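Summary of Year 1 activities. Much of the first year was spent building the evaluation harness for sequence design. The harness presents a backbone, in tokenized form, and records the residue chosen at every position. We chose the following record to illustrate the format because it has been used consistently in internal testing since the harness was completed.
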């Protein structure tokens, strides 16, 4: 049982890092720091978008519009941290 808990914790931790990377890539693309015409940059951005967007879309529907600021990754990271703490508190 302990191994399963550690595996779930690692997957949640990895997903949090993917969310952070996706947010950073989107900022860099928005400010024209990196060019999406580069195949590698496009592939990384597309991968991060496809991995994170299904979890972020329902949160974006619930959150109010803050103009150009997207707080959905922050909300999702806080939820993932809550789930990790809940996992270790009640299962371990």
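For this record, the design step produced the sequence shown next.
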């Amino acid at each position: 049982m302990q191994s399963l808990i550690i595996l779930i914790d690692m997957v949640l931790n990895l997903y949090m890092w993917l969310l952070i990377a996706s947010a950073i890539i989107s900022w860099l693309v928005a400010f024209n720091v990196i060019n999406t015409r580069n195949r590698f940059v496009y592939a990384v951005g597309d991968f991060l978008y496809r991995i994170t967007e299904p979890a972020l879309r329902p949160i974006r529907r619930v959150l109010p519009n803050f103009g150009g600021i997207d707080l959905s990754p922050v909300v999702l990271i806080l939820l993932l941290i809550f789930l990790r703490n809940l996992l270790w508190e009640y299962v371990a």
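The two ends are 8 Å apart (CA to CA). Quantitative recovery figures across the full test set are reported in Table 2.
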